[in-house]
Amino acid sequence: MDRMQRTTIAGLAIVACVAIVAAAETKKEFRFSVNGRANVSVDTPYGTVTVKPGVANQVLVTAILASDRVELDNGQKGNRIELESHLLKGGDEQSGRVDYELTVPPDTTVSLRSTAGPSLSVERLRGDLRLEGATAKVDVRNCSYGHVHIRTMNGPITLTQVKNAHVEVTSISGDIHLNSVDGQLVQVGTTSGRIFYDGDFGLAGDYTFTTHSGDIEALIPGGTSADFNAHSVQGHVQSDISLSPKEHPMFPAELGRSFFGTMGKAASEVVFKSFSGRIRLKHADKTN
């Protein structure tokens, strides 16, 4: 067999494999009508879930099933809509994958759960959000006014432009990034992951960032108005910003282990706590 024949056979084999995979995939579409605030939940062991705002009173779902080794159940009871993927015999991370794309009314309450992701994504909603995953990457953008609850094992978490929200984020080892996030209550915790905050802490909010061994870093603009308390039992603590002294700090004064003080009118309270992680407060325009 000459080289051209071998190349042709190999090419045909690749085309055949692609065709088999394409044929195995199944696309399903669902349309649900709601009257009032919708409550939508998606539970899948494998696959991406993306949620975006759509028209009022209507929930649209597109699901791509990787093979016949996974099935999708869906149901509606009033304004509550549930979608759930189930692995069948022989299903695994590849063959059991279901990718979801949803458009929902902007004030919808959304609950997403994925074991291995690869990602959960929500944008431009103002309803309550609950996202849970083991290794799934979580991304929430341009959402406001709702309660945002996120939990992962080691999946990274990013919140961007989340405004006037009640935020609770926890992870065992995933890194957590918050960019322009503010609200009445913002609680963020991770065991060994790192926490990054870039923003001004809003007005009249309570912010708590906690790690065991992970580092905490906050970048803030000059106009920030906040009361700061920071302490690490074994890690280094540093503020690159001159803070006004306060009479009753939350933690004892320890050189290199704590800092405290205020900026502006101290409208928000900010607490950084770690056992062995480093803590650093920096100017947003000075990132070194």
Which terms would index this structure?
288 residues; twelve-stranded mixed β-sheet; 24 strands; 50% strand
Indicate the topology.
Blueprint: H1 3-24, E1 26-33, E2 39-44, E3 49-53, E4 58-65, E5 70-77, E6 80-87, E7 98-104, E8 109-114, E9 119-123, E10 129-133, E11 137-141, E12 147-152, E13 157-162, E14 166-171, E15 176-181, E16 185-190, E17 195-198, E18 206-211, E19 216-220, E20 226-232, E21 237-239, E22 258-263, E23 268-274, E24 279-283
Task: Let me know the number of strands.
Answer: 24
Q: Please, how many helices?
A: 1
Q: Helical proportion?
A: under 10%
Number of domains in the coordinates?
2
Main sheet overview? 12 strands, mixed
Judging from the principal axes of the Cα atoms, what is the shape? elongated
Cα(first) to Cα(last) distance is 62 Å
Series of secondary-structure elements, N-terminal to C-terminal: HEEEEEEEEEEEEEEEEEEEEEEEE
Strand content: over 45%
Strand order of the largest sheet: 1-4-7-3-9-11-13-15-17-19-24-21
The whole-angstrom Rg is 23 Å
SS-based structural class? mainly beta
Overall mean pLDDT: 91
Low-confidence stretches: 12-23
